[in-house]
Amino acid sequence: MELTLTNPSIQLRAINQNDMTSLLEIYASTRQEELEKVPGWTENMKHEFVKSQFYAQHKYYQQNYVGGNFWVIESKKKNIGRLYLHENFQERGIRIIDITIRPDYRNKGIGKSILEDLMHKSAGLGRPLSIHVESFNPAKNLYTRLGFEKISETNGVYHLMEWKHTI
Fold it and tell me: How do beta strands 129-134 and 93-101 pair?
């Protein structure tokens, strides 16, 4: 899939084996707040846990989203996030498998601009755009503001949200 970004300060680049350390750091940033609440774990224990979770997730995504696009989000040649996307998930729509921006780049409009670009692409293809998000994830508020609607829920935690172009 080709995705044109409107924000000139960011680019997408296909991930490669050299990105694994950076992708692990990006993933770890999503678990930091959660791990701060775990009593009795050393920093090494937390690191090993996050590392195992990252590699399990990475393997799962690679195996279950065959044909997907797995990109690093870059700004000024620095890896600042990841965007994993499947253009024709289950022959039904575009699925955002994962979008993560490093904490120091959040709340600067980067994620919003990428989502708007994806919405534009989705409208052009005439397909819905969907993403799974945890109910407590602050990004859920952004998805809602952009017009995504919850269409299902799993275990009371995971919300499948979808955006459809309306005429």
Answer: parallel
Give the count of beta carbons closer than 10 Å to the beta carbon of residue 10: 20
Q: Do 89 and 83 meet the contact criterion of CB atoms below 8 Å apart? A: no
The dihedrals phi and psi of 27, each to the nearest 5 degrees, come to -60, -45
pLDDT tens string 124-163: 999 999 999 998 888 999 999 999 999 999 888 899 999 9
Cα–Cα distance, 33 to 141 (Å, whole number): 18
Q: What is the band of 167 on the pLDDT scale with cuts at 50, 70, 90?
A: low
Domain boundaries of the chain, sorted by first residue: 13-163
Secondary structure E strands in the chain:
11-14, 69-75, 78-89, 93-101, 129-134, 149-154, 158-163
d(CA 24, CA 13): 16
**Rounded to whole angstroms, how far apart are CA atoms 140 and 115?**
12
Residue 11 bridge partners (DSSP) = 74
Q: What is the pTM of this model?
A: 0.92
Domain 13-163 matching CATH 3.40.630.30: the answer reads yes
